[in-house]
Design goal:
By secondary structure, the protein is of the alpha/beta class. The protein is about 40% helix and about 20% strand.
Length: about 220
């Protein structure tokens, strides 16, 4: 199973080297860090750590993920997404990949259970609201809408993702569910970011903007 890792990053100079270094090479074929317009040395540090670095000038989490996906070679069969701030442990990638490798899942979500207190209360409340809405609207019984996830490349190509901002993770889940494909949750460690400032959960307003994007995508009919 050929695996590519996509790491969107914006001003993560303090953390990106540790994140790239922790990606387990025994199960990873490609690592792409997407510099989403950083004003610091994120790109140089990521390149020095061994990642392929591409730049996406359009600001937005979804835009960065889409750019990273497009930068992977066609040989990649499974794509792993994770953040560049160190709040997820890349060494746990194999936990996400195992259900896909066994043919038990098409999308695997790394739910933030162990160490979840590291996630701010306002972000956890917003997450609960979104998962409750997804249960009501789509019958999805999910515990989390996490950034750490693995998905089959062929399925991702079918989804025709459009959301280029914070709503990308929700849109992916909804589109996979509407196609009747298998979504599996596995617990992973969640910890405080290794350095720098969060653009989303670190501030109330950042969380509010992300929450609004999540809700908008969850409410919008997906084809």
């Amino acid at each position: 199973m050929t695996v590519g890792v996509v790491i969107p990053a914006l001003n993560e100079e303090a953390t990106i080297d540790a994140v790239v270094a922790a990606v387990p090479r025994r199960v990873t074929d490609e690592i792409v860090v997407v510099d989403n317009g950083s004003s610091d040395r994120t790109a140089q540090v990521a390149g020095g750590a061994g990642a392929k670095v591409v730049r996406e000038e359009r600001r937005g989490y979804g835009a960065a993920c889409a750019r990273g996906l497009a930068s992977l070679s066609q040989a990649v069969e499974v794509v792993v997404f994770l953040d560049g701030d160190g709040s997820q442990d890349p060494r746990e990638m194999e936990v996400l990949l195992t259900p896909i490798e066994r043919g038990e899942a098409d999308l695997v979500l790394g739910i933030r259970q162990r160490g979840a207190a590291a996630h701010p209360i306002h972000a956890r409340v917003g997450n609960w609201v979104v998962t409750t809405l997804l249960r009501w609207r789509y019958g999805l019984r999910l515990s989390d809408i996490p950034p750490f996830r693995a998905i089959r490349r062929s399925l991702l190509a079918e989804l025709r993702m459009r959301e280029m901002t914070y709503g990308w993770p929700v849109e992916m889940v909804v589109r996979v569910a509407r196609r009747g494909r298998r979504i599996v949750e596995v617990p992973v460690t969640h910890r405080p970011r290794l350095g720098g400032q969060s653009k989303v959960a670190g501030t109330f307003w950042g969380s509010l903007k992300a929450g609004c994007a999540f809700l908008t995508v969850a409410l919008r009919a997906q084809d």
